[in-house]
Amino acid sequence: MKKTLLLFLLLAGFTAISQNVISLYNGEIPNSKPYKMQEVKRSDKGLFVGYWKVSEPTLEIFLPEKPNDKKAAVILCPGGGYAMESYRREGTEIAKAFNAEGVAVFLLKYRLPSDSIMHDTSIGPLQDAQQAIKTVRERAAEWNIDTNNIGIMGFSAGGHLASTAGTHFNKSYIPNMEKTSLRPDFMILIYPVISMQDGLAHGGSRRLLLGENPGQEKLDLFSNDQQVNENTPPTWLTHTGDDTVVPVANSIRFYENLVKNKVLSEMHLYPKGNHGFVLSIPPSEWMQPLFQWMQKSEYIAK
Q1: By the 8 A CB rule, do 131 and 110 touch?
Q2: Tell me, what DSSP letter sits at residue 29?
């Protein structure tokens, strides 16, 4: 009897956090080939880690028990070098921390770039990010969300995806007959891949997204620091100076161009911690400066 009760409580607690997983597209997935990769779900020492070989994108919905008065939502893009998605540590655990602040989270499991499943690998993940923004904005009333308070957050290569969505929103890479705005209202970038240029790019992310020998035009297009303008959403960034995987100059250059274009943003740099430094800190702790910025910027209530 006790074991049954414990199982019930555990299941009840889980459903209170994640209410639903929906397919990102109702019909045909744009830019796709008929072949479907066999998705791989991996664990380490009994703990779920994330996904490899994602070909069917989804949104996992995390709605707070007590929504914040500002009805904010965050679309969350886990990192993984465009080779995998760190779905737990840069996904579900982050969603719980946002829910505690009354913020809804839509965890995006985006297609990983592969010639076997898409015609153009460079835009596949971006299409999924745009579709996620479109879906959340169009169904905002259903989820008790303010259509003008929908942000996007990404870690590492997921930060590249988030910053791509935040700097390429004027062009729709998906069917959008409704002309729904694809511009996120704010961005949150955690040790993000920003540049695709030699000396700054994360080599694996660049190769998987753009191919072995991308031309300079494509390198420039997906170097998101070069795409910042006065309409780029306000942004919060964090990084460490000793990051040996994604050089801190990625965040610095992006922030400098935000300042140059008078985009109100905030950056937190730390001397040590290397790549993934926040993963050794409870989200409720390292995210406090982020929540304070969201309060100051009126994305969440004080």
Answers
A1: no
A2: P
